[in-house]
Amino acid sequence: MDQRKNCSTVDLFVIGGGINGCGIARDAVGRGLTVELAEMNDLASATSSASTKLFHGGLRYLEYWEIRLVREALIEREVLLKAMPHISWPMRFILPYHKDMRFDGDTPTSKLLNIVMPWMKGRRPAWLIRFGLFLYDNLGGRKILKGTTSLNLAGTPEGAPLQERFELAYEYSDCWIEDSRLVVLTARDAEGRGARINVRTKVISAEQTEGIWEISLEDTDTGVRRDVSARMLVNAGGPWVEDVIRNTVRINATEGVRLVRGSHIVTRKLYDHDKCYFFQGTDGRIIFTVPYETDFTLIGTTDAEHEDVNQKPVCTPEEQSYLLDFASKYLKTPVTADDIVWTYSGVRPLYDDGAKSATAATRDYVLKVDTSAGAPILSVFGGKITTHRKLAESAMEKIGAFFPDVEQSWTAGVPLPGGNFSVDGVAALTARLSKQYPFLTVAWTNRLIKAYGMDAFNVLADATTKAALGKDFGATLTESEVVWLIQKEFAHTAEDIVWRRSKLGLRMSVEDINALDKWMAQNASHHRSHTQPDLPKRSA
Based on the number of CB atoms within 10 Å of its own CB, is 102 exposed (0-12), middle (13-18) or buried (19 or more)? Predict the structure, then answer.
């Protein structure tokens, strides 16, 4: 008898609700597999909500000769941009040049130049930067994004915030991405296609019996436990990937994870234009300054070793000082601690390739299948948010070895919820929303479109006044939107909403957030009870 007719056993059980776990779940369920996913906290509550918010090829990775990774990421920028034009958009980056720019001394490029051009003493010549940008423009078959141009900074808006010693810059393209919304919308799409998505659900144990994984789950809110059976496990635990291997499924594996902390600061708005800066330091590192949430500037990131996966990452005073000093070496007006309005930090679970430094450790992903326990498990190491879709496709190639009738790849060009409009259609969609709901302010309209795209009309439904949207929680957040986030986007707490489904926490008072949390504690379970899907089913 074919076990796949047993509805209580799913094909694939995914551990981890970050972008890799949700991306694999979405891809797999779209190919006909039955899928269940468990995230022990909120979706995107760790690494996937703590990025620099960019779809980028990784310009600096060219120095490490990671050509395949950069090329894949460059191609993916435009594939992803077309699938989610509400939460991703093109941005221009300004790279100021000066003669003291230096390489990280451990890069292959640096070592080569130290041999052939020893008089440069590790400095980056202008021609090399321009050559790197030429490769960046052409490796990925660019169609939407603009190419690199040279820029004389004197008398320009781009030059105005910078110190006068910077006269020349290069301007190139990458993309913004609302990272945590990407995860949530990917999970929504997976659920809409039949996957079961469980948040605040911890995998207590997973043991194989006669070729089947028997998985014990615990609802961390209620303490209720239940069991699930699966033919294959996907370990997309992010920073906890090695912990899952050692302590949850308890198998022997040689692969390890290198935990690297990346911290960011958010400051008052530092300049008026909408372009980013790519700053290069004398220590070989780089940081970005990015226009953020209209009224702020995002600065990051650091690369620091993080020893304990269970220690919550925070932007340390030393990291804050490093970022402030780094940016102040470029900006006319120094950035100080008084300018900081928020900080955040995440842990990147990089594949441990034995690199000497955190900066030099590979950002490429590594996928390992283990069948030593009997039933197969796929573990995911590393990866970049830009290449999450390709990572999922690569994972499905390995998963397909155990499910011979799995369907072909399908995600390229398929929009995420709310994203079924053209890349250049944001202005028209914003105007349409404003016309249909004239009580919205300009800022409110823009926020809704950039969060929900076409779904903004479903969030507002048939409301004709602001009052019709129910309780006002502040900063344009209303009861109707909160209910949508509970029912459609897996939100349980105020933190889920104001720091991951949005960044309204930057604008709401502590009292506002506490009031929202109290309201959700009293009402969320009622709204959520009407949205729980049945267990997924599939026949052979």
Answer: middle
- The answer to whether residues 524 and 486 touch, using CB atoms and an 8 Å cutoff, is yes
Exposed/middle/buried for residue 12 (C-beta within 10 Å: 0-12, 13-18, 19+): buried
pTM of the model: 0.93
Give me 120's structure tokens: 């440069």
pLDDT digits (tens, 9 = 90+) for 281-334: 877 789 999 999 999 999 999 989 998 999 999 999 999 999 999 999 999 999
How many residues in the chain?
540
DSSP state of 314: -
Q: Determine how many CB atoms are found less than 10 A away from the CB of residue 479.
A: 15
Angle at 25 between CA 50 and CA 241, to 5 degrees: 55
Alpha helix segments (H runs only) across 277-329:
317-328
Rounded CA gap, 279 and 154, in Å?
A: 18
In which element (H, E) is residue 129 found?
helix 126-138
How many helices and strands, by DSSP H and E, does the chain display? 14, 20
Lowest mean pLDDT among 158-162, 231-235, 246-250: 246-250
Is residue 340 within 8 A of residue 266, CB to CB? The reply is: yes
Give the sign of the dihedral formed by CA 219, CA 225, CA 227, CA 232: positive
Where on the phi/psi map is residue 475: left (φ > 0), alpha (ψ -120 to 50), or beta? Answer: left
Q: How far is CA 77 from CA 279, 286, 306, 339, in A?
A: 21, 21, 29, 32
Residue 61: the pLDDT is: 82
Q: Is the pLDDT of residue 1 over 70?
A: no
> Which percentage of the chain shows pLDDT scores above 70?
93
CB atoms within 10 A of CB 513: 22
**Mean pLDDT (whole number) for 87-104:** 87
Q: Which amino acid is at 442?
A: V
